[in-house]
């Protein structure tokens, strides 16, 4: 069995360069690859295209890359919690491609499955469909969407083994699974890394064949994006 464990986040992201396209798992601040994002900030690589459901918040998640102006283009579904994102978008500093959430997920899954394109009704008749092929099926119009093409897919899991098998916990099982195997290199950071063969195969969400590099992360903050509490 191939051992895909690497010693550090620096080794996991070896080969990352300016101008590359990165998929990053997570939903809001849930299940985001915190260690890998911090390493991208440290590396200082620029002109990145980032594919993620959202852009974090001003001082956490992908917001850290935005602060350093490392992202050239953001492909997202929801971006409403980041003031710096809004400022860069409105000023023209940041190119933004807004994508319906289900379409975003399916463009990842299609890339994972080796499917070059698919048809979806989402976005027909709107700006989303401009410049894209449309076709009628059974009396309903559909838009053709192409699968994503990315250099790195970076995901965060609760537990993994040295063969790359992954288990996600709770709602962190969001965009992470469909991004595994959807790029040239998939990097998984996990809270707990165990020897190959120790995970119950019935509990594995993503098999190791979709993962090229895996490492154990450290010091996860797991912030809450919108903390709502009951008044005393």
TrEMBL record:
Query: Keywords, A to Z?
Result: Transferase
- Top-level taxon of the source organism: Bacteria
For whether the record's keyword set contains Manganese, the answer is no
Q: Mitochondrion among the record's keywords?
A: no
SMART domains (UniProt xref)? CoA_trans
Q: Name one GO molecular function term.
A: CoA-transferase activity
Cited NCBIfam families = pcaI_scoA_fam
* UniProt cross-references to PANTHER family, sorted A to Z: ACETATE COA-TRANSFERASE SUBUNIT ALPHA, KETOACID-COENZYME A TRANSFERASE
Q: Which family does it belong to?
A: Belongs to the 3-oxoacid CoA-transferase subunit A family.
The name under which this protein is listed is CoA transferase subunit A
Tell me the organism.
Sinomicrobium weinanense
């Amino acid at each position: 069995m191939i051992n895909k464990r690497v010693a550090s986040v620096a080794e996991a992201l070896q080969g990352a360069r300016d101008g590359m396209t990165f998929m990053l798992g997570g939903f809001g601040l849930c299940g985001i690859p915190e260690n890998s994002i911090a390493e991208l900030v440290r590396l200082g690589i620029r002109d990145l295209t980032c594919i993620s459901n959202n852009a974090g918040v001003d001082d956490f998640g992908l917001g850290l890359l935005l602060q350093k102006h490392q992202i050239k283009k953001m492909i997202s579904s929801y971006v409403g919690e980041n003031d710096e994102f809004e400022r860069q978008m409105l000023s023209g500093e940041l190119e933004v491609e807004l994508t319906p959430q289900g379409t975003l997920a399916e463009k990842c899954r299609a890339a994972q499955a080796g499917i070059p394109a698919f048809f979806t009704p989402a976005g027909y008749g709107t700006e989303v469909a401009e410049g894209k092929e449309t076709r009628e099926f059974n009396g309903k119009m559909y838009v053709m969407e192409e699968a994503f093409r990315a250099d790195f897919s970076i995901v965060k899991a609760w537990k993994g083994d040295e063969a790359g098998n992954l288990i996600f916990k709770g709602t962190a099982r969001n965009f992470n699974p469909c991004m595994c195997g959807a790029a040239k290199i998939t990097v998984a950071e996990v809270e707990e890394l165990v020897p190959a063969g120790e995970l119950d195969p019935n509990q594995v969400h993503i098999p190791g064949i979709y993962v090229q590099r895996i490492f154990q992360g450290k010091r996860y903050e797991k912030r809450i994006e919108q903390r709502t509490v009951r008044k005393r």
